[in-house]
Amino acid sequence: xxxxxxxxxxxxxxxxxxxxxxxxxxxxxxxxxxxxxxxxxxxxxxxxxxxxxxxxxxxxxxxxxxxxxxxxxxxxxxxxxxxxxxxxxxxxxxxxxxxxxxxxxxxxxxxxxxxxxxxx
Length: 120
Prior knowledge:
The protein has about 120 residues and is α+β, with helices and mostly antiparallel strands. About 20% of the residues lie in helices and about 40% in strands. Strand 1 (about 5-10) and strand 2 form a beta hairpin.
């Protein structure tokens, strides 16, 4: 069975820009990753959240872990990288490819699932 994915963010300098549908799910997943020992860059990554709507809306930047290693970041230019994080809601997966993040519609449990998500 096909696993659909959708683009939910991209790296823009030191910030991860959250895009459209699934943004709140993606933001929750990002806060569950931990720092790696050899991060891709020296600066911290930030995610910007918009709280409220209209004139009352405000933007808040949250410092998040540097969860992609330098080698995975370099490899992501030629092949998708599957990242997994545990949360209270269970296992969460994100695919990182060419500076963009994609969220599968469900968790990836098998090698067949992994290959399906990477194909999408």
